[in-house]
Amino acid sequence: MARIEESHLEHDEQFIRRKLNEYNLAHVQPDNHEDLCLVVISGDNIIGGLLGGTYWDWLYVEYLLVCRSDRE
After folding, report:
1. Rounded to 10 degrees, what is the CA torsion of 12, 17, 21, 23?
2. CA distances from residue 34 to 20, 53, 57 in whole angstroms, order as listed
3. Which of 23-27, 36-40, 66-70 has the lowest mean pLDDT?
4. What are the beta bridge partners of residue 66?
5. With b meaning 16 or more CB within 10 Å and e meaning fewer, what string describes 32-71?
6. What is the pLDDT of residue 31?
7. How far apart are CA 27 and CA 4, in angstroms?
């Protein structure tokens, strides 16, 4: 019988990513992935930013920072 376990092993994560990538490459066109790190600067301070990427001409936002003021 199958079971579900939590794993913190790097090779388990790599296995899952590799299998998903193999499937995707066989069934869909390339994703043209690009990582993004965008910052909003006021004076010498970063007052906002975005971490994410693009896939299949879509924007994926992983983190979005908007500071309360430009003095933070």
Report:
1. 50
2. 18, 5, 10
3. 66-70
4. 48
5. eeeeeeeeeeeeeeebebbebeeeeeeeeeeeeeeeeeee
6. 86
7. 27
